[in-house]
Write a structure and sequence with these properties.
By secondary structure, this protein is an all-alpha fold. It has 9 helices and no strands. α5 runs antiparallel to α9.
Length: 196
Amino acid sequence: MGHREDLLEGAKRCLLEKGFVRTTARDIVKESGTNLASIGYHYGSKDALLVQAYVSLIEGLGDTFDPGWGAGGDSSSAPGSLERFQEVWANIIRSLPGARAVWMLSLEVILYADRLQEVRSLLAVAQEQGRAGIVPLFTGVPEDELDKETVDSEGRFYQTLLNGLMVQWLFDPPSATDAAQLTEGLRRVIAGATRD
């Protein structure tokens, strides 16, 4: 690996161990075996590097949400169906316990947003990408074929559900919503909204 990749991997380890607020540039350099100047050269700033590392960690989680069928693959349920909705959420929920450190980072960004202005603004861009990345799991439509309206509506919907589930599972896993409960809730909302 080159310095760029070493820095990224070192920053990911630092984030998982110390979080955003407590990670220093010197921590990253020590963990990556590089030098301080390489952070600026490759990433522009420590915060930009930490955001890149966080996004990489989140992307790795996204891969665990997809049980192999993803956009257009082999699922036992039809894209857009309530069965697919439940299947995807079951996969996401299964991945939550093993990803606790990454979800704690997400909460840290929320709690310390005022101290992490650069991180916050960089993550706003990544959040848009996250919305586009989650939709194919439910719809079967490849990410590069999604229109802006779908990402802005369905992507925001799924992202909001994901963030709420994340908080529940971090706070108290035994009482957190499961995929069947989430699906039944959606089923009832749909039935109520379609009544004459």
